[in-house]
Amino acid sequence: MIHAIENDILRQISAEKAFEHIENIVKFGVRTAGSAAAQKTEAYFAKTCESYGLHAIVEDFTEKCYEPIQTKLTVTSPFSKEIECTAMMFGGITKAEGTEGELIFVGRGREEDFQGKDVKGKIVLFERNPDFSTDSFYSEVNLASKNGAIGAIMANYQPWPFNGTLESGLFKGEDRLLPIDPLIPAGCISSESGQFLKNALEKNALTVNLFVDAISGDRLTSNVRCLIPGTAFPNERIIICGHLDTEGNLGANDNASGLSIMLELARVLSEHPSKRTIELLAIGCEEVSSMGSLDYCRRHAADLKEIVCVLNIDMVGVGGDLHIITEGRWPDRLIPTPDWLYLFVKATAKELNYKVKFDICPLGTSDEGRFNDAGVPAVFFWKPGDEHYHSSLDVPEYVDPNNLKVVAEIAGLAAYRLANR
Predict the structure, then answer these.
(1) Do residues 268 and 43 lie in contact, with contact meaning Cβ atoms separated by under 8 Å?
(2) Would you give the distance in Å from CA 209 to the centre of its chain?
C-alpha cells in the first residue's frame, strides 16, 4: 500500500526537471574521466545538491585515464580521403605526422585471421563482431601488435564509430590495463567507412595515415557524495548512485540519465527526511573498469557494514524495458545481486504498476559490481537497448524524459522505504 507521504514524493518527481539536468550536463562536453568536463560535472552535482540543503563531500582519487583530443584517419594513396574516426581508449599516441602504412584487412582480428597474412609494418583493419557483446578490443589490437602491425582500425557493425577501449575487460582492478608491447595507435570507424575501405582494397593497395592525440596517464578525479541525514539512524545509509564520466562522447543517456534522476531525487527526498541517511553518490571512473566505486569501497572499508544497500542507475533514458540486473558476467568473475534486493525492487515497481524485467548483464557490471564484491547488497537499473551506446549519437534528443520519471519513482520509493524500515 502506498502511503500519503509516498504519494507526495511520487507526485513531486518531475520528468521535465530531470531532463533539464541532462541538457545542462552535456553542455560541459565529453566527460572523460579526469577531464575538465568531468570536473565541471562534479561541481555541478555538488552545487545542485547543496542548493537543496544537502551536505556535499568530494573525495578525490588518482587513476590511470585517457582523454582523446584529436583523431584523424586519412587515405593517402592511391587517392586522398579523410574518414571519420575516433580513438580507441588507452591506445597509442602518434607523433605529429601520424602513423602511416599499408592497410590490410584481417577479418574480425582473431588469431586465425592473422594466419598467412603479413601485417608487419602495416595498419590492420578488422570488423567488430555483432554477435559478441564487449567494449574491449584488447585481444584484437594486442594480436595486431604481436604480429608486427603499427596501427589498428576497428570497423563498427553500425553506421557510426563505436567508442571502444583497450582495457582488458577483466574485473580485477589491477588487471584492467594489460600490456600491449609495443603499444600501437588504434581507432574506430563506422560500418559504412569499413565497407568503403574493404571495397577499395579489392581494387588497389591502400596507404593510410592514422593520427591520434590524447592525454594519457594518472589524473585526479572524484566521487561526489551528497547526504540527506537520517533522523533516527544517521550512520546507516541507503546509497543511490550513478557514474558521471563518459567513454569519449556526450553521454546524455550514459550516464547523464542516472545523474539527472539522482539530482531530482535529491530535490524531492530532501523535503522528506527518513530514518536512515540517503546518500546520492556521483561516481567517477566507471567507464574505466568501475575504478571510482572500487576506490569508494576501499576508502570506506571500515563503514561498509553501515550501508543497507546500493541502488545503481546507469543508462535508463533510452532503450525499451527497464531491466533489473540479477548477475553481471565478467570473463574472470560472476557477480550476483542478492535475491532479496532485486525482488524488493521488482515488487516496488509492480506496486507502482510498472513492468520491469530480470536479466543478466553480459558486459560485466556497472558500479554495483564493486559493492556486491565488497559484501554490500547492490542492484543495477539498466535499459540495454540503446543502439547509440558509446557513440557520438548519445545526445539528449534520443532521451525520453518520461523514462527518467519512471525510474526515479521506482528507485526513489524503494530507497525511501528501505531507509524507513
Answers:
(1) no
(2) 30
Looking at residue 376, the DSSP 8-state letter turns out to be: -
Residues 58 and 159 reside in one and the same domain: no
Calpha distance 418→309 (Å, rounded): 8
CA dist., res. 61 & res. 196, Å (int): 44
Asked whether residue 223 falls in the same domain as residue 259, the answer is: yes
Largest CA distance in the chain: 75
Asked whether the beta carbons of 137 and 165 are under 8 A apart, the reply is yes
CA–CA separation, 144 and 113 (whole Å): 10
pTM: 0.96
Which residues lie closer than 8 Å to 234 by C-beta, 6 or more apart? 276, 277
Distance in angstroms (rounded) separating the CA atoms of residues 288 and 273? 34
Looking at beta carbons, which pairs linking 128-131 to residues 24 or more positions away fall under 8 Å? 128/154, 128/155, 128/156, 128/157, 128/162, 128/164, 129/157, 130/157
Rounded to whole angstroms, how far apart are CA atoms 152 and 115?
17
The CATH number for 145's domain is 3.50.30.30
pLDDT in tens, 303-337: 999 999 999 999 999 988 999 999 999 999 999 99
DSSP 179-203: --SS---EEEE-HHHHHHHHHHHTT
CA-to-CA dists, residue 244 to 34, 41, 127, 139, 344, angstroms: 11, 7, 30, 28, 26
- Other beta carbons within 10 angstroms of residue 363's beta carbon come to 17
Q: How many Å apart are CA 137 and CA 253, to the nearest integer? A: 23
* Partner residues linked to 381 by β-bridges: 313, 324
The tens digit of pLDDT for each residue in 213-260 reads: 999 999 999 999 999 999 999 999 999 999 999 999 999 999 999 999
Residue holding cell 590511470?
64
Integer CA distances (angstroms), 61 to 291, 297, 299, 399, in order: 10, 12, 10, 31
Helical packing angle, 256-269 and 4-12, nearest 10°: 130
Taking the C-alpha atoms of residue 336 and residue 354, their distance in angstroms, rounded to an integer, is 24
Domain boundary among 199, 214, 229: 214
Please say which residue of 186, 214, 242 terminates a domain.
214
328: helix, coil or strand? strand
Residue 132 confidence class, pLDDT cut points 50, 70, 90: confident
